[in-house]
Write a structure and sequence with these properties.
InterPro entries: Beta-prop_RSE1/DDB1/CPSF1_1st, Beta-prop_RSE1/DDB1/CPSF1_2nd, RSE1/DDB1/CFT1, WD40/YVTN_repeat-like_dom_sf. With 1311 residues, the chain is mainly β. The protein contains eight helices and 89 strands. 44% of the residues are buried.
Length: 1311
């Protein structure tokens, strides 16, 4: 069967409603192009900036080389071209210390001093040079400030291998390559004031004093940088360019004096410096004599005295270390990928120090003599970074301590790397000159991504608690992983304690400071017993593993502990099931008093501020609550009195909490029936009933069971900050049914207590346990296998934020077990453990530091090679991945093969293809052997191919494609006998999919085949095939349709048609061809409800140019006919989406507010660089209205500061065109407008970029949108949009609140 040509489509139904696409960035790419140390906030802060494709991240490195995220700027709406830092580091060298509260930071005042440096950068497509700095506002929010300087317009960005912005070592000038043969030079305004932190950023500040353009550079600029001036002429400016002209590489430089009134610059040329085919990739300026280093794939060369005719060239030989194990072999040494100059001062100024890093992660330390850099170079290999390395690396540290390198890995996790010492090493001393590097932390990176899988969690059994997790194949050999993309907070493990049997049965934990012993006591409560361990407040080395179990502590260790606290500096109060005990420093017993006979304590709480404890006792089937006041604590005794009479309650009290403000102390008790009792603590009468509150049923629960509301844990969050105002508090209740019940209370000035609001937050299906967090407004919770953080900006329910918490180790291979108990370490000024979180999970205790910023916390599972394909075997609950693996067959040859790996937890086994064969596609295929069989037969179909060998193209017997059927091995087994069936083809098999129960569809060459699998004979019966214009690369089926993404054409839709006369034979008919999505790479079939009980289907197709195209699928109920796909919408994301899946990633505590305007929202996609997108399908009216809001945002400098003056554009037929102005905006027409103007549909108009809406909503959306409308209405220039807004201002303002509500509902659908 040959390709069918489309016939003329019948007239479309013009009244048919359209749909739109909303896109939103859920997680930015982890791919970083460069890391630049830049003190843009303050001279006293060690900041560095990560430059991504279209964002800038600001980090601070603190004591212990801890990395703190400060702020992110992502409103560039374009690609960052190049960047460099302007301004010198001052003589102060940071020792990465903790800064005190009185540190003189930059404030938000416009006249305050700037940091000593600025970031200079360009945006591709603009003719401006931007300067960025930051100041820290009073609310600790870092505010970026940007100024720009116009540059000469250039046609296309320069193709500079290195950084296209060069800065003079003294920051007197900077040069920007603005074309292949042009350089723009700027002179920094008052560079000394800037570098010493004396420059103020105010309305009159201009970073550049003057500028000039160097034209007619004789060749294409490959590398460019300023050289250090000779010692005898420090006023000299020397700009060196390495150029390529007619295949010859030569140095070209321009030199002039910085003190000249007229900056005259003449171009000088050097001789040819490299042989043909040898291209330099790194230019390293050296201190002294205008020397520099060039690196190539073949070696390193040092150039001296470039300014005079006797230029000297010296080759430098580095004894290279072997690449890491399983690193892809090469015939040449690994390329030198980056270099950094560490900070040196004082006695180290006589020499020049360089870290040179190869792409395989090896670090070499080079020391050059400034007077003779080509002689006696000291070279030491000081370690391996264990990652792929490109240009993203930055140095920190100080001269008498270790150097710190922050490295962002390329397609692998980066790291923070420290050397133990960094004096000038001697090659004659101990190995590596006494320098040894080690990794202290890893930096996440989950790129490159070619596939995406959504896997249901264990909660999938109940739809209300369902949540999907995302898995991607990531990394390159030997750092390939199957990575779980998790959104939440990272609890980085600093130490792990194992071997204590008590950890495996712990239910509660507390940490008590013991100042006199400079120790912490860790109290662990288990069923029927209590354990007490001691640890130094600042442990070192193996101290973590030498926890001392204390047997004589003056406490009750024979029963479970319900509450324990340090009520004075040296007195511990413990409440157990059978007694209350007091101990001095958990040593000598001061008092132990048993509960009355027949009484058993079931809950307790202690308020240390007033030395008060409350205890719930169970006696004769009833509960009573007692209040105990601790009096004087002597050297050998302690006094305790009971306040008032015991309070008896109905039902079984199972949890207690006590909270005191400066005006009021109250107790909250929860019982097993879901009732909360609030008592006031009276100094005379003890507990006085104040409030009784019934916990309502969770609307998310499927079963209306009273037992699910049993309150197992209670916390009271909030603090009194002003005596003249009421106190807001939030009571958190951990319920047995798997939710947190939050009750908002307010304590009035008249000591009244009122309930404000309440709400359920669903976490899971099992009991929720709670514990206090770092502040009075934070807490931690566990529920089943989930671990969560609760945080509030204020004691209001609307301010509650719940985040998943994931424990991670350095390589992020940690498999997290359910958390049994957790507790915060109290703050002690001199302790290194202060405010760490102790987490007990399995049989281990982990000391963790919890991040304060939510983000992606990847979880990695190691695989062989470079993974590219991933399949979730749902019926077996395991993964199957395919990776390409390169190895060295001999000293002169390499080989490549693909490895199919089956994995489940810690188990994995693999099956390998033949050499030279690549896996193009894998699918799970399951069927029943007989109609009445209870179990399904599970297979994995694997499509492989190899490149056609010379001489075999004309042979019809050559085999270049195969299709394997593999039986997944049992867990613990091997895959050596898993092949059940092999089918061979002349051309590579590039895609496949199942069709129904026993049908298979696969693409081989330009053909697509449909076959039925005969279960009895285990053979394929080929039914039909179809010839396409180019090979298929992805196939999906939705009977009777088969959708194929082809290599060079668009998505093709075929329909399987059976003849009524011959039911056993079928035919594939071409029913739609998507000409609107050329060069497609993937597609996903989407079904959405549309109209009255109807379903509309379309293919969401992604292309190599970064477009997403919606192609409507023909109605299968209509007779098949050849047509062209109706294009519903187009969207350009500037990144190609590799895979889109349906995934419910929304956590259960954030239920989505259903709205009829959002037709579908559970779509997630990933790009090659790891960017995660969320997609939603909107109805036509909402799309048009939000599109208008987006256009207003694009014209506002607060939301789009870099592009607000440029009209938005769209791509059509390979050309860029301005988006036409249609007024009135669609969605705001009156009845007369609809009559006067025919309805038009432009696919590019049906895309809403949700990132603009997110920026609007991040501020006060209503106020800002009103301000935007006012600004538009007052513009004096003739502009059709401004004119229309001015004429319809009141009507537009009346819609603002509705528009903000619609925008919020549309973008808040995912994490």
């Amino acid at each position: 069967m040959s390709p069918q040509q489309p016939v003329q489509d019948p007239p479309r139904d013009k009244t048919r409603e359209q749909i739109g696409l909303l896109t939103r960035t859920l997680a930015p790419t982890p791919t970083i192009r460069s890391i630049i140390p830049a003190r843009i906030r303050s001279p006293a802060k060690d900041d560095y900036i990560c430059i991504g494709r279209d964002f800038i991240q600001l980090f601070e490195i603190e004591a212990g080389a801890h990395i703190i995220h400060i702020a992110t700027k992502s409103d560039f709406d374009g690609e960052i071209g190049s960047a460099n830092v302007v301004g010198r580091f001052d003589p102060y060298e940071s020792d990465l210390r903790e800064y005190t509260d009185d540190t003189d930071d930059c404030s938000n005042s416009s006249g305050s001093p700037m940091g000593p440096q600025m970031l200079a950068f360009t945006l591709i497509g603009t003719a401006q040079l931007f300067f960025l700095t930051a100041s820290e506002a009073e609310d600790s929010e870092d505010i970026f400030k940007v100024l720009c300087v116009p540059m000469p317009t250039f046609v296309s960005p320069p193709r500079v291998h290195g950084n296209a912005i060069a800065v003079d070592p003294s920051s007197r000038a900077l040069a920007v390559a603005i074309g292949e043969h042009k350089v723009f030079v700027c002179y920094v305004n008052e560079p000394e004031s800037l570098s010493f932190g004396q420059q103020s950023w105010d309305d009159g500040f201009v970073p550049v004093s003057s500028s000039q353009t160097i034209k007619n550079v004789p060749g294409t600029i490959l590398l460019m940088d300023f050289l250090y001036p000779p010692r005898h002429d420090p006023d000299r400016l020397i700009l060196l360019m390495i150029v390529l002209h007619d295949g010859i590489i030569r140095p070209v430089w321009v030199e002039w004096s910085a003190s000249d009134e007229v900056k005259s610059a003449e171009i000088s040329q050097g001789h040819r410096i490299f042989l043909s085919g040898e291209i330099p990739n790194l230019l390293i300026p050296l201190k002294g004599n205008a020397a520099f280093v060039l690196t190539t794939g073949k070696g390193i060369r040092i150039f001296e005295n470039i300014l005079i005719t006797s230029c000297r060239t010296t080759g430098l030989v580095v004894q290279r270390e072997n690449p890491p194990e399983h690193y892809p072999p090469s015939s040449f040494n690994s390329l030198w990928s980056c270099w950094v100059r560490p900070r040196r001062w004082g006695e180290y100024e006589e020499e020049d120090y360089i870290y040179l890093i190869s792409e395989d992660g090896h670090v070499y330390y080079l020391v050059f003599d400034q007077d003779a850099p080509g002689e006696g170079v000291v070279i030491n290999h000081v370690g391996s970074l264990e990652c792929h390395v490109d240009m993203a690396c930055a140095p920190f540290g100080r001269s008498d301590q270790g150097d710190v390198l922050v490295v962002q890995g390329a397609s692998s996790a980066g790291c923070v790397w420290i050397t133990e010492c960094r004096q000038a090493p001697s090659s004659d001393s101990e190995p590596n000159g006494g320098m040894h590097g080690f990794i202290t932390a890893s930096l996440p990176n989950w790129s490159e991504n070619l596939d995406l899988v959504a896997k249901p969690t264990s909660r999938k059994r109940l739809p209300l608690y369902s949540r999907d997790t995302l898995f991607v194949p990531s990394g390159r050999q030997p750092y390939g992983h199957i990575t779980e993309i998790r959104m939440g907070l990272e609890a980085r493990i600093g130490a792990r304690v194992e071997g204590h049997a008590s950890f495996s049965v712990v239910s509660h934990a507390w940490v008590l400071p013991v100042p006199e012993k400079n120790q912490f006591f860790i109290v662990l409560s288990s069923p029927g017993q209590t354990h007490v361990l001691s640890i130094p407040q600042s442990p070192e080395g193996d101290d973590f593993h030498d926890l001392q179990a204390m047997s004589t502590v003056g406490l009750d260790l024979q029963h479970s502990t319900l509450a324990v606290a340090m009520i004075t500096d040296n007195c511990v109060l413990q409440i157990t099931e059978s007694a209350i005990a007091f101990s001095r420093n958990a040593g000598a017993s001061l008092l132990m008093e048993q509960w009355p006979t027949g009484h058993k304590a079931v809950a307790a709480a202690v308020e240390t501020n007033i030395s008060c404890a409350v205890v719930a006792l169970r006696v004769n089937g009833r509960s009573e609550i007692r209040t105990l006041i601790v009096g004087d604590v002597g050297d050998e005794t302690v006094s305790m009195t009971e306040l008032g009479k015991p309070i008896q309650t109905e039902g079984e009290v199972i949890s207690l909490a006590i909270h005191s403000t400066q005006r009021f102390t109250f107790v909250v008790a929860g019982n097993s029936n879901g009732t909360l009792y609030v008592f006031r603590v009276s100094p005379r009468n003890g507990l006085e009933p104040y409030l009784e509150h019934e916990i309502p049923q969770n609307p998310d629960h499927l079963d209306d069971l009273e037992a699910l509301n049993a309150c197992e844990d209670i916390l009271v969050l909030g603090d009194q900050t002003n005596l003249e105002e009421p106190v807001d508090l939030v009571v958190l209740c951990g319920l047995r049914g798997g939710s947190i019940y939050a009750l908002e209370l307010q304590v009035g000035l008249d000591f009244s207590l009122q309930t404000q609001s309440q709400r359920h937050f669903s976490l899971g299906l099992t009991t929720v346990n709670l514990n206090f967090g770092k502040s009075a407004l934070s807490a931690f919770a566990t529920c089943g296998d989930g671990f969560f953080n609760i945080n509030m900006d204020a004691a209001k329910l609307d301010a509650i934020t719940i985040s998943d918490v994931y424990l991670t180790d350095s390589p992020r291979h940690f498999q997290q077990d359910p958390v049994a108990a957790m507790t915060m370490v109290p703050y002690v000024e001199t302790s290194t453990l202060s405010e760490a979180l102790l987490v007990i999970s399995g049989d281990c205790c982990f000391v963790t530091a919890v991040s304060e910023r939510q983000g992606i916390v990847p979880g990695n599972s190691k695989v062989h090679g470079s993974p590219h394909t991933l399949v979730d075997l749902k019926s077996l609950n395991r993964f199957v991945s395919a990776s390409s693996y390169v190895w060295k067959r001999s000293s002169t040859t390499r080989a490549v093969k693909d490895i199919v790996q089956f994995s489940s937890g810690d188990w994995n086994c693999s099956w390998e293809t033949d050499i030279g064969w690549k896996v193009h596609s894998m699918i799970e295929w399951s069927f029943r052997r007989t109609p009445d069989a209870t179990q399904r037969h599970v297979l994995v179909a694997v499509a492989v191919g190899r490149a056609t060998r010379l001489g075999e193209a004309a042979s019809s017997k050559s085999t270049n494609g195969k299709m394997y059927l593999l039986r997944p091995p049992a867990v613990g087994g091997k895959a050596d006998k898993c092949v059940l069936h092999v089918k061979e083809f002349e051309t590579p098999v590039t895609a496949m999919a199942t069709y129904g129960e026993t049908g298979l569809v696969w693409c081989s060459g330009k053909k697509v085949y449909f076959s039925e699998y005969d279960i009895e004979t285990s053979k394929f019966n080929e039914v039909c095939d179809f010839v396409m214009h180019s090979p298929g690369i992805r196939v999906t089926t939705a009977p009777p349709h088969i959708h194929i993404t082809t290599e060079r054409d668009s998505t093709l839709t075929l329909q399987l048609v059976y003849s009524p006369n011959e039911p056993s034979s079928g035919m594939l008919r071409n029913v739609a061809r998507g000409d609107g999505a050329r060069q497609s790479i993937s597609h996903t079939t989407i079904d959405i409800p549309h109209g009255d009980h109807a379903t509309m289907s379309f293919n969401l197709t992604s292309t190599l140019s970064g477009d997403l195209v919606g192609l409507r699928i023909p109605d299968p109920s209509l007779p098949p006919r050849v047509a062209t796909h109706d294009t519903l919408f187009t969207a350009n994301l500037f990144r190609s989406v590799m895979r889109i899946v349906e995934a419910k990633v929304r956590p259960p505590w954030k239920p989505v507010r259903r709205t009829p305007s959002v037709l579908k929202d559970d779509l997630v996609g990933i790009t090659l660089d790891g960017t995660v997108y969320g997609f939603a399908i909107l109805d036509e009216k909402t799309t048009n209205r939000l599109r208008w809001v987006q256009r207003l945002c694009q014209r506002n400098p607060d939301i789009s500061p870099f592009t607000y003056t440029r009209p938005p554009t769209f791509s059509q037929n390979g050309s860029i065109q301005a988006v036409p102005v249609v007024l009135p905006p669609p969605g705001f027409e009156t009845s007369s407008d609809n009559t006067r103007r025919p309805k038009r549909h432009r696919p590019s108009d049906m895309h809403v970029n949700g990132d603009f809406l997110v920026r609007l909503l991040a501020k006060d959306g209503v106020q800002l949108l009103n301000s935007i409308l006012d600004t538009e209405a007052t513009k004096e220039v003739h502009d059709p949009i401004s004119s229309w807004v001015r004429d319809n201002l009141e009507a537009q303002k009346a819609e603002v609140e509705n528009l903000i509500a619609e925008a919020t509902a549309a973008v808040d659908r995912w994490w």
